[in-house]
Amino acid sequence: MHNRSASADRNSRNPRNRVGGKNSFDRAPQRQRPARTPAPSLDRELDNMPVRAVPTVNSFEELGLSAKLCDELARAGIKKPFPIQSATLPDALSGRDVLGRAQTGSGKTLAFGLALLSRLDGGKAKPKYPRAIVLVPTRELAMQVSDALTPLARSLGLWCRTVVGGMSFAKQADALRRGVDLLIATPGRLSDHVRQGTCVLDEVAFTALDEADQMADMGFMPQVRAILDLTPVGQRMLFSATLDGDVEQLVRRYLHEPVTHSVQSAKASVTTMDHHVLLVSKEDKPAVIAEMAAREGRTIMFLRTKHHVDRLTAKLRSIGVNAGALHGGKTQGARNRVLGDFKEGSLPVLVATDVAARGIHVDGISLVVHVDPPADAKGYLHRAGRTARAGESGTVVTIVTHQERRTVARMTEQAGVRPTSTTVRPGGEDLVRITGARIPTGEPIVEQEQTKRPPRGGGHRNSGGGYRGQGGRNNNRDRFNPRRARSDRSRER
Ligand code: AMP
Fold first, then answer.
1. What is the pLDDT of residue 130?
2. What is the pLDDT of residue 222?
3. How far is the CA of 483 from the centre of ligand 1 (A)?
4. In what order do the strands lie in the sheet containing 160-163?
5. For the chain, what are the domain ranges?
6. What pLDDT was estimated at residue 89?
């Protein structure tokens, strides 16, 4: 185990670590201490590091995992470690801090999860005092990590629980009272529990931060720092797709001589994707979107606002495309249901805001569509990263109207991709070749959720460009009037 006495002293001298959790979050977050000497960015350091060959490891037994964990992994069909697991597990099991530049899909959940569970094996949690925490940016990612780790924890007789917003606080407090070995949490809800005294962090010996850059982008850094300040200096692991800005400061302040491992930078993964810019007229855009959505295969479509997501979903369903909406305005139950159906295959099309752009791992998404262009190059890469996962290939298309051409060209250049530009029309050969587009049936999907809350703007009369599907039988004439869309967007931002 590494000698961390210096940083341990530093932390125990910090009065915030002695208050036992309560009220600590009420203080204004402390400003981060700037690094003493200007250092090259971590991202650049990793880019310039010679590539270390990861030793070939053929089984988890070779890495020193317990027979119980290996059996449980085998039951889930997981037999051979992924490179990030072979590279980080030996060091993580020996107690070192770990810094991983890796995205969802690389196998990082098991990289840190197996290390945490092995280190927790044999111990027992006191009521309210979790022994390990995993911080994640979103509820969806929390569920995903929990799905992966709970059966493994159970095989060792350990309790793994989740605390996230949008779910019953009282139930979570109850679970914490019964003792939790591994707590998977979003920073906001964990802060609430600490503030209420339903969770105390004094016995957290192991911490993992997953998708740290997304937590930074979502404004969680004050809570993340406050949580880390309250945990004793134990073993810490941090995984992130990028390691600049706030994440870099977090690494420099809270990780102690970490072993670093880089699977690939966000840019590198885009090479297994086909990138296309589809030039469309405003009039054709709705029909092009509808035909693309009616393709065979798992498709994810990104839009900027919740309202546009709801409206497109309702529209697609009305013409026979089985689409589901995912955005932050939905209840957690609805979000879980839609994501579950999409993962399991009964829902082929997911229409989402950027809430689904990161962290979510769904196998076999073969097409990502930027219906609205993303906010910036980073957004492009994150959305695109939903396809071409785990060595698969995939197609990413950006639907671009004349006015959007320049902005999108600048953005793709910044993102380091060179999309092929093609002008497409509804029913056109190129559209079919690139996306597998088909004519929707026109038979509305039987509504469940949508009937409860009709989309705003539905039923507006508007001429021209509406898409009514093959049969043209449905009389939903609402279409995505660009003029109205623009004013909606500015209202909702
Ligand atoms: P993650 O990057 O942790 O989200 O993992 C992506 C996917 O890879 C998940 O579906 C995991 O179950 C799967 N996975 C992780 N490690 C392995 C492995 N060693 N062998 C096979 N599948 C794996």
1. 98
2. 94
3. 44
4. 160-163, 182-185, 132-135, 206-209, 235-240, 98-101, 259-262
5. 4-266, 273-435
6. 93
Q: What is the pLDDT of residues 303-317, one digit of tens each?
A: 999 999 999 999 999
Mean pLDDT computed over 239-250: 86
pLDDT category of residue 52 using cuts at 50, 70 and 90:
low
If you take atom 13 of ligand 1, which residue's CA is the nearest one? 107
CA of 380 to the centre of ligand 1 (A): 23
Nearest-CA residue for atom 5 of ligand 1: 107
Chain mean pLDDT for the chain: 81
* Identity of the residue numbered 297: G
Note the CATH number of domain 4-266: 3.40.50.300
pLDDT at 95 over 60: yes
Cβ atoms within 10 A of the Cβ of 36, count? 7
CA distance 146 to 160: 7
Q: Phi/psi class of residue 470: alpha, beta or left (left: φ > 0; alpha: ψ in -120 to 50)?
A: alpha
- The fold adopted by the segment(s) 273-435 is Rossmann fold (3.40.50)
Are both 4-266 and 273-435 of the same fold?
Answer: yes
Residues with CB under 6 Å of ligand 1 are: 78, 80-82, 85, 104-110, 148, 361, 390
